[in-house]
Amino acid sequence: MTVRAKPDAQSRSAVKVCRIVEALGTPDYAPKTLAAIAMSVRGSKTTVWRVLKQLEIQKWVRFDAASDTWRLAADFIRFAVAFQRFMDDRQRDLDAEWADMTGDRSTRK
Question: What class, spelled out in words, does domain 1-72 have in CATH?
């Protein structure tokens, strides 16, 4: 029997943030209303709004008052692209280490 620890408040908050960012990034980064985001993450509009306001302060999301929608902001996209580049570089490093250890020079995918 697996016993799972009850997540603390910080963990639950982090999960909420991740789910909201993920909702804004799928399927096509299209702007979304507060109601649509709340429905997507199965959260209350109040909680989602609070998280969005914090993400807005961090410049990770933008609110468009004209369309009453939220979208990921350029700062978040830059962060995501930089992270992807870092991961690509790390994968190349690991592939090179693997090749050195095994002598296998084929490109692994």
Answer: mainly alpha
